[in-house]
Specification:
The structure holds two protein chains of two kinds. Chain A is mainly β. Chain A is 0% helix and 49% strand. Chain A contains no helices and ten strands. Chain B is mostly beta strands. The chains are: A mainly beta, B mainly beta. Chains A and B meet through strand 5 and strand 9 of A and strand 4, strand 5, strand 9 and strand 10 of B.
Chain lengths: 115, 110
């Protein structure tokens, strides 16, 4: 059974940093592109970033470009999102998801950016 | 620009059928899309990948009541024999240079 488990969310002040993790199991992690998607409470889903299977290629939404960095450790079946220079508008539940059709999702981790 | 358009809301009665629509931008009418369901206070759940010819691949455990079809740039999610647990937000999604989501349709089961 495919499982994705996010962690690392919490409360952080504007301008601060946070690193999210996503532990993957139940599939060959090193074969799949992976994504981060976020959702502000009461709003829709917004794609944040993706990384290809071997980690050599990354893409970001304009809203996070230059501030967020996606990475992965295929030996440990882990996906990461390093978030720097956080803004109030980055407050959201962050989900990791598998491959381009997002056929498996984690339960999400809440990031709150507030002073 | 790759855009997906969904109506904000829909409603149908318990036991009835409903058809939700996702419209691709005109230059991207041949793209496949994916339908996701998000029940209240839960994370999203993959329902199906829907190709331009209407063929679709459902996720594990998705009931037969859920099906998809396509016509031109429109992609449909059809839910028959509506149940209370089908009350949820439904998002369509596709990908190009980046992943793109529609704005979501909130389905109310009356």
């Amino acid at each position: 059974e495919v499982q994705l488990v996010e962690s690392g969310g919490g409360l952080v002040q504007p301008g601060g940093s946070l690193r999210l993790s996503c532990a993957a199991s139940g599939f060959t992690f090193s074969n799949d592109w992976m994504h981060w998607v976020r959702q502000t409470p009461g709003e829709g889903l917004v794609w944040v970033s993706r990384i290809n299977a071997d980690g050599s290629s990354t893409t970001y939404a304009d809203s996070v470009k230059g501030r967020f960095t996606i990475s992965r450790d295929n030996a440990e079946n882990m996906l990461y999102l390093q978030m720097n220079s956080l803004r109030v508008e980055d407050t959201a539940v962050y989900y990791c998801a598998r491959n381009n059709w997002l056929d498996s999702w984690g339960q999400g981790t809440l990031v709150t950016v507030s002073s | 620009q790759l855009v997906l358009t969904q109506s904000p809301s829909a409603s149908a009665s318990l036991g009835a059928s409903v058809k939700l629509t996702c419209t691709l931008s005109s230059a991207h009418g041949g793209y496949a899309i994916v339908w996701h369901q998000q029940q209240p206070e839960k994370g999203p759940r993959y329902l199906m990948k829907l190709n331009s010819d209407g063929s679709h691949t459902k996720g594990d455990g998705i009931p037969d009541r859920f099906s998809g079809s396509a016509s031109g740039a429109e992609r449909y999610l059809i839910i028959s024999s509506l149940q209370s647990e089908d009350e949820a937000d439904y998002y369509c999604q596709t990908w190009g240079a980046a992943q793109v989501f529609g704005g979501g349709t909130k389905l109310t089961v009356l």
